[in-house]
Design goal:
The chain is α+β, with helices and mostly antiparallel strands. Helix content is 31%, strand content 30%. It has helices at 10-16, 20-35, 63-69, 100-103, 113-126, 149-156, 168-184, 216-220, 262-265, 272-286, 304-313; strands spanning 3-8, 44-48, 51-57, 75-82, 85-88, 139-142, 160-165, 188-199, 202-213, 225-231, 246-252, 287-298, 317-318, 329-332, 335-343. The protein is globular, with a radius of gyration of 20 Å. It binds S-adenosylmethionine.
Length: 346
């Protein structure tokens, strides 16, 4: 059986410290189970020339298989092992835009880009739409979107992206950034709405709606993507988005620790589990049957069982098996982060 060696992005070691290889093994298993017919044998960490690799066996990987693996959040390069030699394999990523869309913005409280991609990937892979990850324009909602790391990753994949966040400064920073970025990169786009949304004469929130195409050819072919960002409380999301319209809900919940004075200033010091209890049923109603929600949270603020119970109470089915139990990792003294993914029954 052919063997393959995966080189992990050097930055993963900085982001996850000692946990990078373990997370890569779990992500690989999520891809294998969902879209590679379970074809990959259990991966292991090896060393070649003093450098760590994640190695696995598989029946010969075809171009579609490597196209899936090319989008792993941790992949730097993939090789076919031939004795002591490594043969590089072509990795065609989904990426439609320059990666500065995701990396330019730097701010306290930003969810790490690589981790955001991991969260989006494993949520898509757990949904009924995993096999369509490369071919369909999925609709992704980040209902606690901050300054848009998930939205930018979704756009990079060619998906439609929607977000909601209560923090006005985050909303302003993100909408200013994205409008400037689209102009500066000369990306064909149209802002279709930008301003306050009124309900019964009162301002219910602010909103930016835009559409864009990665290239002239895409525009001609009607391959346009939608971006829709709202500044409002996430528990009011159904006032802005229609039920059962998102394939994936992907979010990094507040960590229950103060990031500077931001949380206190905007009244966000609510316990993360309380927020999830109020918000998850709303998010579940926005998901299509077969869709999935993926939440990252701080296990020091709420144990995994509590997060899973909140999802179950909202009629979702948490995936509590295999690689989906292997994403827990330490971020710092106050944060041990984990991912929980749940499906909406078809
Ligand atoms: C961990 S941060 C997400 C950061 C984001 N992924 C990014 O990279 O910018 C959690 C976000 O939840 C938002 N938030 C907290 N409570 C909220 C609520 N009730 N409604 C909407 N957003 C809320 C905060 O403003 C914060 O931006």
């Amino acid at each position: 059986m052919p063997r393959y060696a995966l080189l992990i992005l050097p930055s993963a070691n900085r982001v996850y410290a000692g946990a990078a290889a373990g997370l890569a093994v779990a992500e690989l298993a999520a891809f294998s189970d969902s879209v590679l017919r379970g074809a990959l044998s259990a991966a292991e960490v090896t060393r070649r020339g003093g450098v760590p690799y994640v190695e696995f066996g598989a029946e010969r990987l075809g171009p579609e298989d490597t196209s899936f693996l090319a989008n792993m959040s941790s992949i730097y390069a993939l090789f076919e092992v031939s004795g002591s030699l490594l043969k590089p394999m072509e990795l065609n990523r989904l990426d439609r835009y320059d990666d500065d869309l995701i990396t330019i913005q730097k701010y306290q409280g930003k969810t790490n880009e690589q981790f955001t991609k991991l969260l989006l990937n494993v949520t898509a892979l757990a949904s009924a739409f995993g096999a369509q990850m490369l071919s369909r324009q999925l609709a992704v909602l980040d209902p606690l979107c901050g300054r848009g790391t998930t939205l930018n990753q979704a756009l990079t994949y060619g998906y439609d992206a929607a977000g909601i966040d209560i923090d006005q400064r985050d909303f302003e920073a993100y909408t200013t950034f994205i409008k400037t970025w689209l102009k500066r990169k000369r990306i064909k786009h149209k802002v279709t709405f930008d301003g306050p949304v009124r309900r019964d004469g009162k301002v219910a929130g602010r909103r930016l709606q835009a559409s864009m195409a990665a290239s002239k050819q895409d525009q001609k072919a009607g391959l346009t993507q939608k971006l829709d960002v709202v500044c409002a409380d996430t528990t009011r999301a159904t006032e802005f988005f229609r039920p059962a319209t998102f394939d994936l809900v992907v979010t990094d919940a507040p960590y229950g620790v103060q990031h500077g004075s931001r949380s206190a200033a905007s009244g966000l010091a609510r316990r993360p589990a309380e927020l999830l209890t109020a918000a998850v049923p709303v998010w579940a109603s926005l998901l299509r049957p077969g869709g999935a929600v993926g939440i990252a949270w701080n296990t020091l603020a709420a144990p995994r069982e509590e997060a899973a119970a909140i999802l179950t109470a909202a009629g979702l089915e948490p995936v509590e098996s295999g690689p989906y139990l292997q994403f827990r990792h330490r971020v710092d003294q106050a944060i041990v982060r984990d991912i929980v993914v749940a499906r909406k029954p078809s």
